[in-house]
Write a structure and sequence with these properties.
- The protein is 55% helix and 7% strand.
- The chain is mainly alpha-helical.
- Helix 3 packs across helix 13 and helix 8 crosses helix 9.
- It is elongated and about 80 Å long.
- The two termini are 30 Å apart.
- It binds iron/sulfur cluster.
C-alpha cells in the first residue's frame, strides 16, 4: 500500500490559509493511503528555538486544530516528531552525505533568512531540508502532499534519498508529490494571510469574531461609493465567495457588484452566512473534542504505531552505513 507522510509545525493556531494549504489534503489523503501525520515540534526549533513557551502545549493545540478540522485518528497515525528519536538520528546520518551546496541553493533558505526578524544563521535552519528528508525516509513514504512552493523541498529530499541508495546500494523509495491546489486566500487587509500580520481567520474563531472579521475585510479599493461599479477580480473578498458560496451566488454577486446593484456591506453578509455553513461542523467538533480530553493518548498511541516503522528503516540505514553488523 502507498504510504503518505506529512507534518506541520506547532507555531500557533491554524488559520484558513493553513487549512486549505495543507490540512484539507491530509483529510483527503487519510482515506486513500496508509497515512502518518506528525506534529513537527523539532522543526519548530529550527526557527523558533528562542521561544520560551511550551512546545508540548503548542503541540496539543495543533492536534486539537487537526481534530476539529476533521482529521480522524482512527483513519491515520498521528504522533509527535520528538517522541520518535529516530528522526534526529537519521537526520544526523543524512547530514553526513548531503552536500552543503544543495542546502544553500534551496530557494526559501535565503528568502526566509532575509525576511525573518529572528537570527536564522544557524546550522539547524540550514539543515532543515535534511531533517525533512529524515521525516519522509524514516517511514519510507511513497507520497508526500506538497503545494507548488514546497516542490523544491521535496526535490532535495528525493536527491538525498537517491544519494543514499547510490552510495550504500539500498533501494529506499523516492516519494512522489501529491500536489495540492491551494486557493489564493488573502488576509483581512489584503496581504498574505499570516499570524504575524494579525490578519487571519482562525479555525477556532467564534461566530462573533468571524462576523467582525468578515465586516473588516478590504474589498475592491477602487469602489469608493455604493453607487460605483465594483470589480470582483480586484476584490480580496471575492475569492472567499468562490470557496464558500455556491456558484449561483457567485454569479449573482458578480452581476450585482459590476452593476452597482449590490453593496459591499450586503455582499459581506452573504459571505458570513456561507462561511458559517463551513464552520458549523468545526464548531460541533470543538465541543466534542474539548469534552474528551484524550489529546495526549492520541499522540501516545500514534507513537506506538510509528515506532516499529522507524526502527525497521533505521536497521537498514545503520547496516548500510556500517554501524551494525
Ligand atoms: S460587492 Fe462584493 S465582490 Fe463587489 S467589491 Fe464589494 S465585497 Fe467585493
Amino acid at each position: 500500500m502507498m504510504r503518505c507522510v506529512s507534518g506541520m509545525r506547532p507555531t500557533g493556531a491554524l488559520h484558513l490559509g493553513n487549512y486549505f494549504g495543507a490540512l484539507q489534503s491530509f483529510i483527503a489523503l487519510e482515506r486513500q493511503y496508509e497515512s502518518l501525520f506528525f506534529i513537527a515540534d523539532i522543526h519548530a526549533l529550527t526557527t523558533h528555538y528562542a521561544d520560551k513557551d511550551s512546545l508540548v502545549e503548542r503541540s496539543r493545540n495543533l492536534l486539537l486544530d487537526w481534530l476539529i478540522a476533521g482529521l480522524d485518528p482512527t483513519q491515520c497515525t498521528i504522533f509527535k516528531q520528538s517522541d520518535i528519536v529516530e528522526h534526529t538520528e537519521l537526520a544526523l546520518y543524512l547530514g553526513m552525505i548531503t552536500p552543503l551546496s544543495w542546502l544553500e541553493r534551496v530557494p526559501t533558505y535565503k528568502e526566509v533568512r532575509e525576511e525573518s526578524d529572528r537570527d536564522l544563521s544557524t546550522y539547524g535552519f540550514l539543515g532543515y531540508p535534511v531533517l525533512m528528508t529524515a521525516d519522509i525516509l524514516l517511514y519510507q513514504a511513497t507520497v508526500v502532499p506538497v503545494g507548488e512552493d514546497q516542490l523544491a523541498h521535496l526535490e532535495i529530499a528525493r536527491e538525498i534519498i537517491r544519494r543514499v541508495n547510490h552510495t550504500y546500494r539500498t533501494s529506499l523509495p523516492e516519494p512522489q508529490a501529491y500536489k495540492t491546489e491551494i486557493p489564493k486566500l488573502m488576509g483581512l487587509d489584503g496581504r498574505k494571510m499570516s499570524k504575524s500580520y494579525d490578519n487571519a481567520i482562525y479555525l477556532r474563531d467564534t461566530p462573533d469574531i468571524l462576523e467582525k472579521k468578515v465586516r473588516s475585510m478590504t474589498t475592491d479599493t477602487k469602489r469608493v461609493k455604493r453607487t460605483d461599479a465594483g470589480n470582483p477580480k480586484e476584490c480580496h473578498l471575492f475569492p472567499y465567495h468562490e470557496l464558500f458560496s455556491s456558484s449561483a451566488q457567485c454569479s449573482e454577486i458578480c452581476e450585482g457588484c459590476t452593476k452597482a446593484q449590490l453593496g459591499c456591506v450586503d455582499c459581506k453578509k452573504i459571505l458570513y452566512t456561507s462561511m458559517l455553513k463551513f464552520f458549523q461542523p468545526i464548531y460541533e467538533r470543538v465541543d466534542l473534542w474539548n469534552k474528551k480530553d484524550i489529546l495526549d493518548d492520541i499522540l501516545a498511541e500514534g507513537a506506538v504505531k510509528a515506532k516499529p516503522l522507524a526502527e525497521s528503516t533505521m536497521h537498514i540505514i545503520r547496516q548500510a552505513m556500517g554501524l551494525n553488523e
